[in-house]
């Protein structure tokens, strides 16, 4: 309580100069003075408050309690916070409520004992507290439900928090690890090295804490170890430095990587064997095969008058099968080299390339091959794209069964790809064979009737798919077939097709 009596003018000066909202009431709780800040806070004209009970500024639910406490306060007046232990709210003139802190101070005046109430709007503080609570609740939910293990340690390496995922990962309960050093979760040599790394970081700030941003090894309660990814972040709680480690068990990933490496080694070995096989085929098989072919040709020429019709047919079949074997060996070598033996990709003008292929194939006079529109220039290996057109066109020529054969080549744009088509009016193909004909060594006609190795279309499919395209066909039995294939336009140069968009 003040030791000197305060006069009315002194009270008015005190309130007018204050930046906080203040009112002065008598023993009955009637407002004697109110400062301008009260008007801003509650919306009442301050002169309109004079003579009214202070309860007018309180919501209805607080008024009775306030009035009953007023007498006890004047019995033992002292400076204190009003409503300690409970939340207080103010009531504005418009009926809206807002949280407040109220401090009471007794005043000894000429008029007797009065009380001065200082009122603070704590809306922002309450909002901040609520936001903090929500943030902590969210963080707790993340901590508890995270798939990854989360371990929080202090600057001495002592574990403070250990989430459920970490419990499952390491086999310890949180109670078993809290207040113990985090190195208990590491096998040697990580266990012995951890404290030294942590101390070095605390002294120098250099991020050499074991495992930060890389793979390390964890140790479970049962002593077994497992590979894990560890990411560590630093936070501060006042002057304390805290470290939160996020741990992920990567055992499955490591197993997958080991399996992938093993498969790659096996693939490399298989490729090496294939390359060696190709060498053996090209050098060790073709030489005797050429000798057989030469001998067969010599026999059929020099001893032609010695053979009867059956003998001549046998010699024809022998020579034919030698040629087929030679073609099969060449086809296997070509197939094995696709994707393994690389040429330099260059811009290839398909208009020129396709006409060169047609000249090379020299189709019979009864078969007409036409290019329906301008073909694009593509960035490819020249030999590979030549093999695609050569095999598709030679197939159409070889199997043509019409006296007037027609083969049409076209290209148009389909999205981000070139769509090529080669259409013939040949015998057509039954739908059940659409997939079979792209398989290695598969033919539809007997080989003694139509010479075929069964490699050509399989080779075309492998080349087209190597460039990211696909191949398929449409066919009507007796009326002909259309083979379609695509190449990405991203691999093309400035050349373009004049065909319509698909």
TrEMBL record:
Record keywords, A-Z: ATP-binding, Kinase, Nucleotide-binding, Phosphoprotein, Transferase
Domain PAC: 84-134, 212-262
Entry GO CC: plasma membrane
SMART domains in alphabetical order: HATPase_c (SM00387), HisKA (SM00388), PAC (SM00086), PAS (SM00091)
GO biological process annotation, one example: regulation of DNA-templated transcription
Domain of life: Bacteria
PAS domain mapped to chain residues: 7-60, 135-205
Coarse class of the protein's main subcellular location: membrane
One MF annotation (Gene Ontology) recorded for this entry: ATP binding
Protein localization: Cell inner membrane
EC number(s) given by UniProt: 2.7.13.3
Function: Putative oxygen sensor; modulates the activity of FixJ, a transcriptional activator of nitrogen fixation fixK gene. FixL probably acts as a kinase that phosphorylates FixJ.
Protein name: Sensor protein FixL
